[in-house]
Design goal:
This protein has 345 residues and is of the alpha+beta class. It has helices at residues 82-96, 118-133, 140-149, 168-175, 211-219, 221-247, 250-260, 264-271, 276-288, 313-323, and strands at residues 29-41, 56-72, 76-78, 101-107, 152-154, 160-162, 178-181, 187-191, 197-203, 291-296, 303-307, 326-333, 340-343. The protein is built from 10 helices and 13 strands. The strands form 3 sheets. Strands 1, 2, 3, 4, 7, 8 and 13 form a 7-stranded mixed β-sheet that branches. Strands 10-11-9-12 form a 4-stranded antiparallel β-sheet. The protein has a two-stranded antiparallel ribbon with strand order 5-6.
Length: 345
């Protein structure tokens, strides 16, 4: 499946919210937004590049994207992925009728294309910051829709290309905690996960997790497996995951997320990786040693495991390294606050 590259600012899906009053702010602000672990898409057949949806469950974690932004007569961007930043600024500006520019400096957490939603965090933070400086004419749902409906990944020569988006990233980034999304970028439920800490494991891997490789994986094998397991996944979400989250039952939620790791598209995402058997073995080890919420994030390869009780990071790391070739193991915690904005001057 070939995805057409676009100039930044090209609408993939135009959204008309009607005329909004813009009130320009003179201040410079900082925006800090957490990363997300996307522990399962609900149905790969319900979305495609340029067509967001599919539902999903994910968790905001304490790896942060930071930006500072102010209004300017012309746009100046300082960041690793200026085409994505430019695209987001132009989408917001066009919707609101703002004709001047922004000065933007972005510091990312450095874990790009590891399954932690770096692109989603980048677009969400830029959308949030630019909207804030224009008097917040758009609410968070409208920002989520704009990001989701016009979601892109970076492409060659300063271009962007439509990407896959469920809405989990912006929702987790804006609100924090664990989020469950329905189709069409709509929210089913948000559940705080107070006190949960754990580890994130990045395996050594030679699989391509971005661009055309990701499109081929998700549009073919993963979609076929979700068509096969769709009924079972739907039952799991409706009768276990969703009720468990409403009741605040972390163990019920963790059991459902673990069941989803072995169904449909998630199995294709895991099998995409060089050490897929070892990834499953590592997750099973973590589950058996207290990792109540454990799963591989998005197309991977990052594994997330969250604990309700105290755990020994060194002992876990020693054993995990015997199971799976590791690039990095880091402590991680749930972010239950979501986006934070501060006025700098």
């Amino acid at each position: 499946m070939t995805v057409q590259s676009l100039k930044p600012g090209t609408f993939i899906n135009h959204v008309d919210f009607g005329k909004r009053r813009v009130k320009e702010m003179d201040e410079r602000i900082s925006v800090t937004l957490p990363a997300r672990a996307h522990l399962s898409v609900l149905d790969m057949n319900r979305f495609a590049p340029g067509y967001p949806g599919g539902g999903g469950v994910g968790v905001a974690v304490n790896k942060y994207l930071e930006l500072d932004i102010k209004l300017s007569h012309r746009t100046k961007i300082n960041g690793l992925r200026p085409s994505i930043i430019e695209h987001t600024l132009k989408i917001i500006s066009d919707v609101l009728g703002y004709e001047e520019g922004f000065q933007v400096n972005v510091k990312e957490h450095g874990l790009l294309h590891k399954g932690l939603g770096s692109t989603s965090a980048l677009m969400s933070s830029v959308a949030f910051g630019s909207n804030y400086l224009l008097g917040q004419p758009l609410d968070l749902r409208e920002l989520r829709l704009l990001v989701g409906l016009n979601f892109v990944e970076e492409a060659d020569k300063g271009l962007v290309r439509p990407g896959y988006e469920t809405g989990v990233g912006p929702m987790a980034g804006f609100y924090g905690g664990l989020v469950i999304m329905a189709d069409g970028l709509e929210i089913l439920h948000r559940m705080p996960l107070k006190g949960l800490r754990g580890i994130a494991i990045i395996p050594k891997d030679d699989a391509d997790n971005a661009g055309e490789s990701e499109v081929d994986l998700l549009s073919k094998k993963a979609s076929e497996l979700d068509a096969r397991d769709g009924d079972q996944k739907s039952y799991e979400v409706l009768f276990s995951l969703f009720p468990g989250a409403i009741k605040g039952n972390v163990h019920a939620v963790g059991d459902s997320i673990w069941n989803l790791q072995k169904l449909g598209s998630k199995t294709a995402e895991v099998k995409h990786h060089t050490h897929s058997d070892e990834i499953y073995s590592t997750m099973e080890f973590l589950r058996n040693h207290g990792g109540v919420i454990t799963g591989m994030s998005s197309v991977g390869p990052t594994i997330l495991s969250l604990f309700c009780d105290e755990f020994d990071l060194n002992n876990l790391e020693t054993t995990v390294k015997k199971i799976l070739p590791i690039e990095e193991i880091m402590p991680i915690a749930v972010d239950n606050n979501g986006v934070v904005v501060k006025i700098l001057d």
